[in-house]
Structures are given as structure tokens and as C-alpha cells.
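Appendix B: complex inputs.
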Amino acid sequence: MSTQLAILPVVVPLLGAPLCILLRIPRLVGLFAIVVATLSFIASCLLLLAVQNAGGLLIYEMGGWPAPWGIEYRIDYLNAYLILLVSAMGAIILVPAQTSIRRELQENRHTYFYTAYLLCLTGLLGILSTGDAFNVFVFLEISSLSSYTLIALGSDRRALTAAYQYLIMGTIGATFIIIGVGLMYMMTGTLNMFDLFQRLPEVHNSRTVLSAVGFFIVGVCLKLALFPLHLWLPNAYAYAPSVATAFLAATSTKVAVYVLIRCMFSIFGIEFVDTVLPLQQIFIVLALAGIFAASISAIYQLNIKRLFAYSSVAQIGYMILGLAIGTELGITATMLHLFNHALMKAALFLAIGSVVYRIGSAQLNHYAGLGKKMPLTMAALVVGGLSLIGVPLTVGFVSKWYLVVALIDKGWWLVVVLVLISSLLAVIYVWRIIEWVYFVPPRIIVDEVREAPLSQLIPVWLLVGANIYFGLDTTLTVGVSEAAAAALFGMLP
Amino acid sequence: MWMAEIPVFVPFFVAAAVALVTRGPLRSVLMLAIIAVSGLHLWLVPAGIEVRVSFMEYELIPYRVDGLSLAFGYVFHIAAFISVLFALHLRDTMQHVWGLIYAGSALGVIFAGDLLTVFVFWEMLALSSAFLIWARRTDRAFRAGMRYLIIQVVSGVILLAGTLMYAHSVGDLEFGFIGTGSPAGWLILLAFGIKAAFPVLHAWIPDAYPEATATGTVFLSAFTTKTAIYMLARGYPGTEWFVYLGAVMACFPIFYAVIENDLRKVLSYSLINQLGFMVCGIGIGTALSLNGTVAHAFVHVIYKGLLFMAMGTVLHTTGTIRATDLGGLYKTMPFTALFCMIGSASISAFPLFSGFVAKSMIMSAALYEGHHWVWLALLLASAGVLDHSGIKIPYFTFFAHDSGIRVSTVPRNMMAAMALAAALCLFFGIYPAWLYDLLPFDAVYNPYDLTHVLAQTQLLCFAALAFVYLNLTGIYPPELVSTNLGAEWLYRKLGRRLIGAVMSWVRGRDSGLRAAVMKRVNGLMLYLAQLHYPGGRMAITRPTGYMVIWVAILLAAYLWLLLSFPNEMAGSDHH
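Resulting structure:
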């Protein structure tokens, strides 16, 4: 039974998506999607426990075909942890989605939204679960195509251009990844990641494999929006339906970071990557440039969704910085921030979604006076913002602490200073929101605004609660992150 | 039911929550009652209590009680009680709530046993106090509050950086003696130094404190800087150069205070001067001097609060606080005038007033340890204190020329708060033994012996004489509206050509440098704004082709790096 668990989180939404189309009645579809996502979430909880019981590795062979001929799902701490995160976000965001999309989407599109949403969830969970390089590409395409749809559903007309740009960039990224996979297949004749890891050393000095490294890394960096390949992201996040933004911000870039970690550690092997490429230096420069450029851009944004979109680009910088450190501590920090950032951004974008639900706008100057009208939603926004800054008692503090400790341990003092300064930039852009919400006198139209409905408030505060809970009790997050990082380094020859 | 482990900041946060939801007399009674109960609670708490929790890989001590923290805890309760009482007439919920959170955060810092807890309360202290400045609700106050908050937050970030380094090198976060032996120690010291208004880092006090509300300044004067003094006393006792730093701190604000027209600004400068004595005491580092620092902080909180309350009352009733606009108020505000003079006598360290019993401890300690020059500097500073705080404040407010302002009534709660503070000033001055019992270290000291009393009285007489002379000859400046002109004129007339020249040169250079830096900063901000505003080069929506070019550039770069350096290492990696 426990081996079947490996595939359950992926299969459930995969089957649920077409059923959505068949159901047709929008309200039923919404409820059905929640049930599907929740089942997937329960399965992934069990999966993490099963991985723990199995001593850290669970292998499922698709259709009984043994690897390397068949496709296998290899679940270790790293992906079990992220599967849990993604399915949890997938389930919880669907609750406010019920009311939120009624306001933002035309009725005849609701079914498509849920279908695309479940497909996207399938794709993301698939990428995380599979142990096959080509399978990664397939699931990547599933998740990407459905996320283009999700973005294009946005009511703003600019959503279409944003989705189109994301489509072009995403396709280029996916193509690069498949080129990378193809080149590796050419040299080794295998697509199984573990098999690749063992066979690649024989052909390490071939130009084909070296090119594969380049294509793969650029493709993945495009998907995870590492500066300067982030340009598609701000518009995509800004104009997508609010809940879609929350879902994508909380999950999709995280999964791309996972793919990067996997390819560096479990396919090519970190030693090989380090010998052929000054990846450490490249990543530090790009990460820091991303952190600063995007944080400063965030300060000047007038649209709050765009503001947090830029902040996401900056946060990805922190994750890549952890990766650049290249030590076990660094990877732990990256893993922690993956998890914690998902919690913050989901909470923030859902709170913003509630405001859009009530006032129909995500412009910062329309937030004036909302502190009195929507006190609970705004309080959630503030706590989420504090977490983003990295204030103690929130998750943001924990991940930043680990990142800085890893940097100090490595002796990169300058980077430590820069990271701390960059936190001040986050203080500024979060403060701008607080200023609008609490200090600027309200405009007239705000008078009739009420607090968000409970169906939106509860998930938001659940996430805010998680932001605080995991900021205090770090046993799960730090424990699993450390185990995952240790497992990655355990693979070194 | 009573539990010694309940941290003392908890009642304050409860009181803040209560203040948020209640109104009117009920709120007044509850706020005062909770603080009183909290004070009683603290009185019963024995030293040596620790609450430990584990967080991440560290053992944190969010609550730790010992002699040093208890002494500060007591006076913070007194200060909180007096400040709340003084602000009781206000209907402004925001001020009540943030004032209580502010006091609670200060207590949180005092009783924190590890650096991380310190950091948390440190930032809360910064944020909550900023609201007391913003509560004045003027544009000027908002901007001053913003500048204040930025400096305080920067201090917090530096503290965090220091804490991180400390945790990395020591492997532990417990907050005890830190010392300046490591870079971490220096960073943490810098963070404390900003809050303790070390010279050059002091500018935020005279900038922000006079902008707060009449009642807010009373809160502000009590907690932030004394919290920093406590941190220094715990983390850096006996740091040699503090002695000289303290002497400088005690002396330089006098020059600014004498020529300042805004009387609350005068008090802000005199606050720095008083901090100088305390820093000096920490630097000497003997049991006597540390006791002196604690005692000085203790009585200082009360008499400084009293002076700020007196000025707050004047501001509240007349609407102005400029020395040139005031005068002759004693006719309509006799009690405020009396309380103000008690505060002035205390800060000037007249025998039988509370300042005397504390200040002489630090000065005696300086003499015992052989710091004669420092002792002289402190003596000079004492004379300066008398001139600007002791005489200037009450004289120009309540006496001098009659400004013609007639005041109807002073709110009763304000009077009560001032009366209480004045009574405490006298009480500790006359019965110093009560104060000395609260001090954390073992050192026997008697302030009322012949030499002390005589020396202090002589000093005071001559300083007073100087004031009378300067004032009679019309040299004393506050009657001038323009302060800058006044400064130059004052020093020339006094024949202190050199000092005057140096001072104006420093001030000129200082303002020139500031202007230049501000110009650069503004230029940079403008540049960044142009770059990053929606539509700016960094944040514009780019055509797809532009994005693709970046992809191509990166791919080319990666491939070049990968392929153009033939890799022997990679080849030799065969299994």
C-alpha cells in the first residue's frame, strides 16, 4: 500500500480535472475540486510519513516496469516535503477561490478555471514525484500550459498579453530543458535520473553533456524567474485572477527551484557542475542583483499584486543564494525558504484577493482607509508583510536566520551585509502598504466596503497562523529540510 | 494564583488591549490599576527567576530576573505610572495603547535573558515609540517620526547582525557580558550606542523628542535611552574608553542646549548630557560607579520626566514652547512652576534633591579610580546642567519678562502626575538609603558628607552667579529668536573667540556635510525612482523579444563558460 502512496497525490487531481468538465455546474465543480485537492493533500501527508517509515526513500515503479526502462517515482525527504507543501497550498487556496472567482471571472469560465487549476496541481506534483527526466518535462508542460490558461482567465485585458509572454518564455524554457534531456539521452541512452547520475561520469568530458548542463540550467532558471529572466513574472502575477496568483506564487517557482536542485545534485552531481561551471559565482551575482533590483522595483509599484510579484523575484534570489553557498547549511536554508515563502505569499495574495473581492481593485491608492473597513484582512496583510521582512516570531525570520548563519559559516561577510540591507528594502515596501492602509485618509468610495466573507478570512488566517506557528515551532520545517539536505549530500560519491 | 514566572511585560500588553476596547473613566482606572498591580507583582518577584524555552537550535531566556534588571524594572513601573497618569485626560486611544506597548516593550528588553528576545522587544520599542511622535498628527511630526523610526530600525538591524555573529562565534545567545573583544561585540555595541545617543549617533534625540505630543515626550524620555543604558551596563561594564566618551557626551550638548529656543529641545540636549554621566559610570566599571549609573538612571527617569511634564503642561495650556514666547507664567501656574523648580533642582543635583545622591556616586567613583580630568569635565558638565536645565528652563518659562499669556486651568491629572514625580524627587533626595537598597551591587556610599555637600553647593552657587551675570548684562541668548546668529554673537562677546570659532566651524562643516550627503541621497533616490517606477527602465513591461534576448545572452554565456575551457578535471572523473 505504502508504495502506491507515491503516485496517489498526482493521480487524484489528474483524474479529477476531466471530471470537472463533465460536471459542468460551476458550484458543484468548485466543491468537487476542493474534495480532490484535499484528498491529494491527505495522500501527501501519508506519503511523508511513509517516507519517514521507509527510512527516507520510497520507490514506485510505474506499471511494474523496473527502472531504467520503466518510469519510477522516487520519493525522498526533499520531494515528499515539497509535495506536502504544494498539495496543501493547492487545497487551501481553493476555498477562497469559490467566492473570489465569482467576482473576477465570468460564470461560463468557472469550470475551466477549476479544470486548469487541478491540471496545474497535477503537473507540479508530477514534477516533484517523478524520478524520470523526460517525465519531468511532460509534467512541466502540463503545469505550464494550465498556468497559461489560469493567467489568461484574468479579467484585465492585459492578462492576455501577460499570458502570451509567459507562454513564449515558458515554452523556450521547456524547450531548453528537453534539449538538455535529449543531449543526455544521446550520450547515455537513459532517461532515469538515478541511472543518469551513475552513467554521466563516463561521458563527463563530452561537449554534448556540457551543453546539456547549459541548456538545462538556463531553461530551469527561466522557469524559476531568476534575474534577469524574471521579466515575464510581474505581469503574469499582476493580471491573473487573484487566487491563481496566490497558487502560482506559492507553488510554481518553488517547484522550479526543486528541479534546479535535483538537476544539480541528483542528475549531474554537484561536484561535476562545480568543476565545469563557476555556478557559485554566477548564482551569487544573479541572486543579489535580483534581490536588489526587484526589491527596489517593488518599492515603487502602484499595483499591489505587481509589488508582491517583484518581491517574489527578490525572494527567489534568497533561495538561489542558499543554493549558491553550496553547503548543507545553505541547502537547508533554501529548503526552509521554499516552504516559508510559500506560506507568506499564499497568505499575502489571498488577503489581496479578498480586497479585490470587496473593492475590485489592486491599486495601492485604493487601499486608503481599509484598515478600518477590513481590519482582519488588513491585519493578515500586515503579519504576512512582517513575515516577508523576516521579523522574529514569523517564518520569514527562521529562513533568513538560517540563510545568514550559512553565509557566516561560509565566511561571506559582504553577502551577509547585503542580505541584511536588502531586508530593509522589504521594510520599505511593506511599510508603504501599511501607510496607505492605516494612515492615508480614506476615499469616499470606501464607505460601503465590508470585511471579507468568512470563506476567505478563514483560509487567510489559517495561513497567517501557519506563518506564526512555523516561526515558533521549527521542528517539522527545519527537521525535514536538514534531512533533505543531508540526503542530497549523501549522494556524493 | 500568583505566579512569579509571569513576565512583567505581559500586564502592560494586557493593559494596552484593555485601553483599546474601553473608554472614559473606566479606562483610566483600569490602566493605572494594571500598572500598579504589575508593580506589586514585580516587587514580590525574587531575583534569580528564569524562563527558558528552546527555539531553533538555541535555548532562549525570554524572562530573567536579577538585581540589575529589577532596579530598572521598578523605575520603569514608576515612569509608566506617572506617564500614563499625565496623559490620562487624552481621548486619543492611539496614544494610550502605543504608550503602554512602548513601556511593556522596554520592560521586555530589561528582563530579556537572550539577545534574540532583546532584538524582538528592541524593534517593538522602536515602532511603538514612533507612534507617540506621529500622534501629534502634523506633517512635521510625521516626518520626524519617520526619521526616528528609520534610525531605530537600523539600530535593530545592526543588533540582529551582531547577534547572528555572536551566535555563530559563541554558539549561544545568552545575554551577559559581551565586551568589545570581537566584531560581534562591536556591532552590538553600535546598535546600543545609537539608542544610547553616543556622540555623532545622538542626532535623533533632539530631532524627534521635541516633535512628539506633550504627553508622548514624557514616555519617550523615560524608556528608550535608559533601556540602552541598561544594555550597556550589562554587556559592556568597565569598557575603558566609555569614561572619556561619557565625559564628552556630558559636555558637548551644553553648547547646543544653551542657545536653543525650543525648551523641549533644551531638555533633549540635557538628556544626552545626563546619559553622559551614566556612560561614564559604566566605563569606570567598579561596583560603586555601576551602582551610581543605576541610581542615576533611576532618579533621572523621574526628574527628567518631571521636567518634560512641566514643559508638556506649558505646551498643552499655552500652545507654545519657545522660550522667546513664554515668561511670567508663575502667576497663573504657580504649582507647575514649583514642580518644575523641584525638577530643576534635582537635575542640577542640589543637596536634598534626588540628582545629588546619584550623580555624586559617579563622580566619586571617577575620583577613586584616578580619572581626575574626567572628574573635572563632569564638574563642568554639572555647571552646564544648572545653567540650561536648572535655571534656564524655569526662568524663561515662569519668570523673566511677562509674556502676557494667562492660563485658565491645568488638567488635574497632569498636576497629580507632576506632584507625584516631585514628591519622589524630594523623597529619594532626603532618604537616599531607600534608593541605595534597590541597587544591584555591593558598595557602601554616603552622599551627605562635608566635602560633597560643600563642593556641590559651591559649584552651584558659582554657576548660578554666572547665569545671573550673563543675564543681567544681556548676554544670555534665549531672548533672541534666531539661534544661529545668537550662537556666534554669544561666543564672541564672551571672549571665547577660539571656542566660538571652532564651534561655528564644526557646526558649519556639520551642516555643509549633511547638506552634501542629503543631496547625494536625494539624487540617488530620484535616480532609483526614475529607474523603477512603473514605466521606468527596470519595471517597464518589456516586449517578448527583449526577454528572449536575455535568454540568448545567458545561454551563450553558459555555453561559452562550459565549452571554451577544456576541462581536464571533468575528463579525469572516470569511474
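The CA atoms of residues 270 and 313 of chain A lie 25 Å apart.
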